[in-house]
Design goal:
Length: 441
């Protein structure tokens, strides 16, 4: 029967304890009972010593190999890849910012990423060394080492200005501080707004917006625009209309810089147009309102949004009101063509043609008016049977007859059922006075 072999560690322990009794027959018997298979007499000691040394060597090396194998296997399994490096680059700036733990900031960042998209990661080379990885940015500005699912900055090169021989302000830390300060001010502004302290809220929103704008990346520019809009609302509460409109216009211009925010920029410009149109004090600037509607219309048309037609209508009506009659006539031509192909806008064609005819009367071109009226009746049957067409016909008849009384009667009759706008009344009064002058001659 083959004797049992002792475990290497057991052998080492026994040899150390009984090293002084190698030649003792009793000692040899103990070894033999453990499976060492030594002779009965202790005179032969070399085989025993040789076998013990083999066991000691084998046990020690085996443990080292096992530990190293486990280490290498674990390191390989947790060797970070390209995707983990991208995530590290996207999140490292936020992790350095002490205010990143703030829940409201995280919420703002989340929505910004939905709207603006993820910031880009610089291009890089990835070298996999089985247990660890080295990444070098293609621009050579930095290199990183990764192991155990973590990335660490290995080296960074500062960019030196070739013109002035001094460092460019990489100021990543400055930008982080500025961004954190902007978020703090925004939250303070929201708190002040909740307490109805609108002056303080407006001031803080403006300050935060300027700081976000200074940081300058897409996400922070969007934050800046939102803060400018909030400042606009706060200024409105304190009746500071000029500052409110200035803040809102800045927001619109920031939205316009991003192709992804064209629709939002258009809505903001439309809101500006409405606000400028509502102003009733002597500082009312309808030219500014027209410009806002024009920008909104161009952006909506660029997006393929059919709502741009409403911006055109606003431009045309305001142009007529401030006396830009030729511009209004051209815009109404475009509007009428568009409306004729749209079932929802078709019923408004008669109103647009009527406004266009009033602009022609303001230009005192009665021949042109007759031609336009004839074309409209032929092209648009809905206009042919309208009160507007009958009214224009009566005006042309009174003009041809040089009869101011008939002219005034036609105006009064129409105004009883459909109220004429102030600018239309002014145009018709001027035309009646011209008729009276001709009648006197």
């Amino acid at each position: 029967m083959e004797p049992k072999r002792a475990h290497p560690l057991t052998v080492i322990t026994l040899i150390l304890r009984n090293s002084e009794t190698y030649g003792d027959p009793k000692c040899n018997q103990e070894y033999r009972s453990l499976g060492l298979c030594m002779p009965e007499k202790g005179a032969v000691q070399l085989p025993l010593t040789y076998e013990i040394h083999v066991y000691m060597f084998f046990g020690y090396k085996l443990r080292i190999v096992i530990v190293l194998s486990v280490f290498v296997y674990y390191a390989h399994k947790h060797n970070p890849n390209d995707e983990s490096f991208r995530n590290y680059m996207l999140t490292r700036e936020e992790s350095k910012d002490n205010s990143a733990s703030n829940s409201s900031k995280e919420l703002f960042k989340f929505f910004n990423k939905l709207l603006v998209g993820q910031p880009t990661v610089p291009e890089f080379y990835h070298n996999d060394y089985y247990c660890w990885s080295i990444v070098k940015l293609k621009d050579g500005s930095a290199s990183y080492i990764g192991f155990y699912d973590k990335w660490y900055l290995l080296s960074k090169i500062e960019i030196i200005s070739s013109g002035r021989n001094k460092k460019q302000s990489d100021s990543a830390t400055e930008m982080q501080i500025l961004e954190g300060s902007a978020y703090n001010e925004k939250e303070a502004a929201i708190k002040a707004k909740g307490q109805r302290d609108y002056n303080k809220a407006a001031r803080l929103f403006l300050s935060a917006a300027k700081k976000f704008q200074k940081v300058g990346d897409d996400s922070n520019l969007l934050e800046a625009a939102i803060c400018y809009e909030d400042a606009y609302k706060a200024f409105q509460q304190t009746n500071q209309i000029d500052k409110a409109l200035e803040a809102l216009e800045t927001a619109a211009s920031i939205y316009e810089t991003s192709d992804r925010q064209n629709s939002r920029a258009a809505r903001t410009y439309e809101k500006l147009g409405e606000q400028y149109k509502k102003i009733t004090n002597p500082d009312r600037d309808l030219e500014k309102a027209i410009n806002m509607y024009r920008k909104a219309g161009l952006l909506l048309e660029l997006e393929g949004d059919g709502r741009y037609i409403f911006s055109l209508i606003s431009q045309a009506e305001l142009s007529a009101e401030i006396g830009h009659y030729e511009q209004a006539i051209e815009l109404f031509d475009m509007i009428i063509v568009f409306a004729s192909n749209d079932s929802l806008l078709n019923f408004k064609i008669k109103d647009h043609i009527f406004w266009q005819c009033m602009c022609i009367i303001a230009l005192e071109d009665w021949v042109r008016l007759e031609i336009r009226l004839k074309e409209a009746v032929e092209q648009y049957p809905s206009f042919a049977d309208s009160r507007e067409r009958a009214f224009i016909d009566d005006l042309i008849t009174a003009k041809n007859a040089c009869d101011p009384s008939e002219f005034a009667t036609a105006c009064k009759k129409y105004d009883q059922l459909t109220k004429l706008l102030p600018w239309q009344t002014s145009v018709l009064l001027r035309a009646k006075k011209d008729l009276e002058s001709e009648d006197l001659r």
